[in-house]
Please model this.
Amino acid sequence: MHTSEFVDGRGSKNEFKGWSLDKKQLVAARLRQIIKKRVLKGFALGVVKKDYDEIVPDALKAKGFENHYTYAIRRVLGMIDEWRQKNMKEEPIEYIFDWKRKRSPGSPRN
Model:
């Protein structure tokens, strides 16, 4: 589920098109219940592309942080690793990744 499509509800192929606000609120509440029951810890990071492009030196970009997306995912993976080392060294961990095709509705343009 992509939250931007869920909230927006527009587009001919949007599976949430035409949903009422009440229905969306019920679904969002149920999703929060599922997440709270199944997830130990959540991690997120937002990076403003304009700021990233202006501030991050080329030397760092050349070391695997080519753009704000690669920077964000590497930082979040680092945050997860730090937390895991402190909290659950011996336990398995499951990662779930998702992406959208370039130029799909709601996806970044750059």
